[in-house]
Specification:
The structure is a single chain. The protein is an alpha+beta fold. Helices cover about 35% and strands about 25% of the residues. The chain contains 6 helices and 13 strands. The strands form 4 sheets. The protein has a 7-stranded antiparallel sheet. The chain has a two-stranded antiparallel ribbon with strand order 2-3. It has a two-stranded antiparallel ribbon with strand order 6-7. Helix 4 runs antiparallel to helix 5.
């Protein structure tokens, strides 16, 4: 998927957890082979060319396409699975895959799991008794600095996803123009229970811009967010403070 995944796993029976970790890693490689838009032989590339139907693909392809359609509906089209009129579900696949990997390991008995896919994180359980997971949010305007620290205290599952221009430049597309999204934002960080959705909502809100993006994020249940503009203005949803620490 063009990025690095890292795992922090706590507790559980070592043999079972190690086996689940190996399975999760193997599954991430398989997901990359199925969904990569850079591989001509991937199922998604063949589907886009009309060489396969959805029914002929692995079941996960239909699952991801259904999730992507829901993200498009909820965001009123600001999240899209099309790039230059071609099917491209990569905007949802990474978060979905990381979340699935975390749940596989937790199901094997781990008491705490953190899966980080290119800076987007799914947290389950806790690292130790009475100590929650904490995730630092990079400051896009001050390399090496932190804009905030998110705490998972009181939550058995929490995800943190950021979309912006600091790491990969202007890679987010405005689906209404087909060109790079030009807004007043440099980063949007979304905090929600599931990384699949947190990743989608961060991308959609970035394309909207700070005013419309913040208004829309405030309307979503169980979602908090931090938005940083190019002018170094910080805007956040009303409940974000309860997740900082």
């Amino acid at each position: 998927m063009g990025t690095v995944f890292s795992f922090d796993v706590r507790g559980g029976e070592p043999g079972a957890v190690q086996a689940a970790l190996g399975e999760a890693i193997a599954e991430l490689h398989r997901v990359n082979e199925v969904f990569s838009t850079y591989r001509d032989d991937s199922q998604v590339s063949r589907l886009a060319r009309g060489e396969l139907t959805v029914q002929e693909c692995d079941p996960e392809v239909a699952e991801v396409l259904e999730l992507g359609a829901e993200a498009e509906r909820v965001s009123d089209g600001w999240f899209s699975m099309r790039y230059e009129r071609r099917l491209d579900p990569t905007g949802i696949v990474k978060g979905w895959a990381a979340e699935r990997a975390a749940r596989r390991i937790r199901a094997a008995g781990a008491s705490g799991v953190s899966v980080n896919g290119g800076g987007d994180v799914q947290l389950l359980g806790s690292p130790e008794a009475h100590r929650p997971w904490r995730v630092g949010v990079s400051d896009p305007l001050r390399p090496g600095g932190l804009a905030a620290v998110v705490s998972a205290a009181g939550a058995d599952e929490l995800a943190v996803a950021t979309s912006g221009t600091a790491e990969r430049g202007a890679h987010i597309v405005d689906p209404r123009t087909g060109r790079s999204a030009v807004t007043d934002l440099v980063a949007v960080t979304v905090v929600a229970p599931q990384l699949t959705w947190a990743d989608c909502w961060a991308t959609a809100a970035f394309a909207m811009g700070s005013r419309e993006g913040l208004r829309w994020l405030e309307s979503l249940p169980d979602v908090e967010a931090l938005l940083i503009t190019a002018g170094d203005e910080v805007r956040c949803t009303g409940g974000l403070a309860s997740r900082l620490g």
